[in-house]
Design a protein that fits this description.
By secondary structure, the chain is an alpha/beta fold. The chain has one domain: Spore Coat Polysaccharide Biosynthesis Protein SpsA, Chain A, CATH 3.90.550. Helix content is 32%, strand content 24%. It has six helices and nine strands. The chain has a seven-stranded mixed β-sheet, with helices on both faces. A hairpin with a 2-residue loop joins strand 7 and strand 8. Helix 2 crosses helix 4. The longest helix is centred in the middle third of the chain and has 15 residues. The protein is globular, with a radius of gyration of 16 Å.
């Protein structure tokens, strides 16, 4: 698969209710949390779209465009639809979007490469990474062909990624990963402390 057909998308529009502030803007070690995932994926795509509802800081790059959710309070599916609409409205040639959360500092480039290389793109219009029997619903590859159906279902009230994906028909790409959990995500201040410990011992 030609990666030029894929737009990288970081979903950073969450409310961070459990954290108490915009978690993607907190420092972990010497970097903002959001810069960890950006630094791992930016070399793999021609462009990366950062979907948020706030004015945020990040390590700037000509590759990165920052946009707001087209409509708030639609959850991650709203962010996915926002990215798809951006592709259409800007006459981009991307056929797929590859999505990532903003709060997973230990995800690595080689996992993304293996995920994309393993996919048979004729098997589905939606793929998620699965590891150790856990499906990671925000680490996904979504066909732009899903735009109309996604918008229709969001207008009907669908909000949960897992339920919508199962209804559409998602294919899980199972990956066997050892050592530390690259999908560890930070939702609370306690998990930030845990991440700091992991970082020190890495």
């Amino acid at each position: 698969m030609d990666h030029n057909n894929i737009l990288g998308v970081v979903l950073a529009g969450g409310k961070s209710l459990r954290f108490g502030e915009d978690k993607c803007q907190v420092k972990l070690g010497d970097k903002l949390l959001i810069d960890y995932i950006l630094s791992e994926i930016i070399g793999e795509f021609e462009e990366v779209l950062l979907v948020t509802n706030n004015s945020i800081n990040f390590k700037k790059s000509k590759k990165i465009s920052l946009i707001n959710d087209f409509k708030k309070n639609l959850g991650p599916l709203g962010g996915v639809l926002t990215a798809m609409k951006w592709v259409k409205e800007n006459n981009k040639n991307y056929q797929w979007i590859s999505t990532f959360p903003a709060d997973t500092p230990f995800f690595k480039t080689h996992i993304l490469r293996e995920f994309l290389q393993t996919i048979n793109f004729n098997e589905s219009k939606l793929f998620f990474i699965k590891s150790n029997n856990i499906r990671h619903n925000i680490f996904g590859l979504w066909s732009i062909d899903l735009l109309e159906k996604l918008e229709e279902d969001l207008n009907k009230g669908d909000r949960k990624v897992e339920i919508w994906a199962n209804k559409i028909g998602v294919k899980s790409i199972n990956m066997h990963l050892k050592n530390q959990n690259p999908f560890f995500n930070i939702n609370t201040k306690e998990e930030l402390v845990t991440a700091e410990e992991i970082l020190k011992n890495d």
